[in-house]
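Slide 14.
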Amino acid sequence: MADVSATSGNSVLNKIDDSRTRLASNTETFLKLLTTQMKNQDPLSPMDSTQFTQQIVQMTGVEQQLLTNDLLAALVGMSDGGLAGSVNLIGKTVTAATDIAALSDGEANWDYNLSRGAASVKLEVVNSAGVTIHTENLTSQAAGDQSFKWNGKSDSGVAQADGDYSLKITAIDASGSKITPDQSITGLASAVQSVGGTTVVTVGKSKIPMSAITAVRNTV
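Slide 15: predicted structure.
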């Protein structure tokens, strides 16, 4: 936990340092323009010193506003689903809205919910290249929570490599209307990390964006 907090704190400091660098560059440019303006002023009609003062005050105000904005943005980033706020998920059972599950040790599991009973359900396991690896057809399925466990083998019986696979569900009710299921996976959260600026939680063997998590409960 200490490492996560330190990472978030360093991120804030880095953003503030970047802001100061930009401000220093802006100030230097402003002073060069002001100096050039003074050198080229009309000697018979010199600029009022009040104008110099007003311009400096305006520049200072802009600098302060920019720094304040960057600091607020950095602080919001720390508290809005960041690593420090997500580390307490570790060791808990979480549910995430996703159609992707990781195949590991010859097993991948999905959960889904049907809003009404289905007369037929077609389940298709699709690999990362978009190719359907395995298909199952069910004659009927009741409304409510359902689950599907895949043994990691293709329709021809060939064991597939570990990795992420998605589950495509085509459910039709008795009237022939399509049912759109809510898909999810449930598992133990074992780690959190930042990937490309997005907080990602490891659920079982899958890496899920923090924004996809819909439920958290203590592991019994």
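Speaker note: Helices lie at 2-39, 49-79, 83-86.
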